[in-house]
Amino acid sequence: MAKEKAVLFVDNSNIFKGRQAFSKQLYKQGKLRKGEYLRVRWDKLLHHLEQQDAGIDIYARHFFASLPPAADVSQLKHRPTEEEWADLVKRSAQSGFYKAIQDPPHNFTLHAVPLRFADIYCSNKIKQAYKNCSDAQGGHVNCKLVIDADECYNCKHKFLFKYEKGVDVSLAVQLVLFGGLKGSNLDRIILVAGDGDYLEALRYVRRDVGKDVQIVTWRRALSRELAKIANKPILFLDDYWQKLCEKKATPPLDESPADIEPESEEADQEEETKVSA
User: Fold this and answer.
1) Where are the domains of the chain?
2) What is each CA distance from 166 to 113, 122, 197, 215, 222, in whole angstroms?
3) How confident is the model at residue 187 (pLDDT cuts 50, 70, 90)?
4) What is the third-level CATH fold of 4-117+165-270?
5) pTM for the structure as a whole
6) Which end of the chain is more exposed for a tag (fewer CB within 10 A), N or C?
7) SS in 3 state form for the chain?
8) Band of the pLDDT at 217, cuts 50, 70, 90?
């Protein structure tokens, strides 16, 4: 009997953040000590997935991440040039964690989505925070923090905000391209993420094209609507963390994503330029 053919897609940021939340639970339960960090063993996860049913051949593996990772850009104080940025992306993709997942036994295709930058002004952040507090307290701010509102509102200081945007779009496009071929020998799409942003792409692959869909994620990170699309058993990493993860003595900074996209319109307006590799 021929093995089922599958393609796997990983949203690194989604899995990283879900793991951080789950790790906090383990700390509270005493299953992780202070100074210990949880890290996914991707080789073990791949092996576990391929042992399902009568055996699955995951013949294509795609890993989506914002590069450079947060640790590499944490000290940046200015926007890098195009050349500097291209060098940062290249070096981070070919070293450490990202180099390892491209090599055997992982054999992932790495999709590097460049980080974006925004110049954030302190005065606007203070105004936004004050408004949020005021709205939450019915128009009154009862706070022990004493600040000079006039001075803060007129502050011209700004800082460089690094954030990721576009990973979900890039992944969804590739997912549709792979899963949208009715005549292909692909049987199953495996999504390692629980984000509801992938709902429409998976709905198309499952209902319109007829491919099987399986989701791998952390329990608290799974969108309810996304769960309804899957017709194969959902693999919750929470239930297999002792088998598929390892405890590390150092934080996994090499694979950590950047911040989420700025929420304010101010950040969108200030992001006049984007550095891309």
Assistant:
1) 4-117+165-270
2) 7, 26, 11, 20, 20
3) very high
4) Rossmann fold (3.40.50)
5) 0.76
6) N
7) CCCEEEEEEEEHHHHHHHHHHHHHHHHHHCCCCCCCEEEECHHHHHHHHHCCCCCEEEEEEEEEEEECCHHHHCCCCCCCCHHHHHHHHHHHHCCHHHHHHHCCCCCCEEEEEECEEEEEEHHHHHHHHHHHHHHHCCCCCCCCCCCCHHHHHCCCCEEEEEECCCHHHHHHHHHHHHHCCCCCCCCEEEEECCCHHHHHHHHHHHHHHCCEEEEEECHHHCCHHHHHHCCCCCEEHHHHHHHHEEEECCCCHHHCCCECCCCCHHHHHHCCCCCCC
8) very high
CA distance 72 to 77: 12
**What span, in angstroms and rounded, lies between the C-alpha atoms of 102 and 175?**
19
